[in-house]
Amino acid sequence: MACIQSCAAQKAGAPLGHLEANPSPLARTKCGAAVVFLKAMQLLIAPLGLVVSGCAGPGGQLESLARQRLELAPQIAWAKYSQDLPVYDPVRETAALQSVMAQGAARGVPAEATRRFFAAQMEASRRIQWEWIHSWRKNLAPRPAEAAPSLDTNLRPRIDAIGAQQVDALARGARPLTLDQISVLGARFWPKNALSTAAHSAPSTPAVTSQR
């Protein structure tokens, strides 16, 4: 581990005072192998959306949490579809936005930055939900065999927990992701056979509020 840390520091341009003054050829070979290993592990971990504690900064954590948040969208869609609930609930989403904005303000995060990030994330979630519901209604995707999870006791508490961690990441300096960036993260959670029907299946809603 010490060798890996030293190699990483050397690649990052750290002063040689943090490394051996005259590393041997064998040490250089081991060091190079360690760097290659680290890069290979990064390539393996990145597609899984994993964040290793201490290795990713607030920005990486915010992205990973956004991915976790969007992963819940198909389950949210199934719960709403099963109960014949609307995807877009402006009263609930306004309350949700006000809640995270208050959390952010308490941590020194500008209210507008918090609002824009969470509104974009809700919008991306809503698009995924609409696409799944559209696919079920048109028999383009099979309906889940299991019962829908509870919004109140299962899904929303998980959403709140993720949101609290995201506020923390923003407070520690993470740059808010845009709707386009979040949508890219959420593309993997669309129905496999979706034919880009969002343009005609998703109703238009105000940009300042988005689905929780």
Model description:
It is a single chain. This protein has 212 residues and is an all-alpha fold. It has nine helices and no strands. It has helices at 2-11, 25-45, 58-71, 73-83, 90-106, 111-137, 151-171, 179-186, 198-201. The radius of gyration is 21 Å and the shape is globular.
Tags for this entry?
9 helices; 212 residues; mainly alpha; single chain; disordered N terminus; 0% strand
Quote the average pLDDT: 78
Helix content: 55-70%
Specify the structural class. Answer: mainly alpha
Distance between the termini: 42 Å
Described by the principal axes of the CA atoms, the overall outline is globular
How large is the radius of gyration? 21 Å
Contiguous uncertain segments of 5+ residues: 1-23, 25-55, 195-201, 206-212
Q: What is the ordering of alpha helices and beta strands?
A: HHHHHHHHH
Supply the number of helical segments. Answer: 9
Largest sheet: none
DSSP E strands, number: 0
Strand content: under 5%
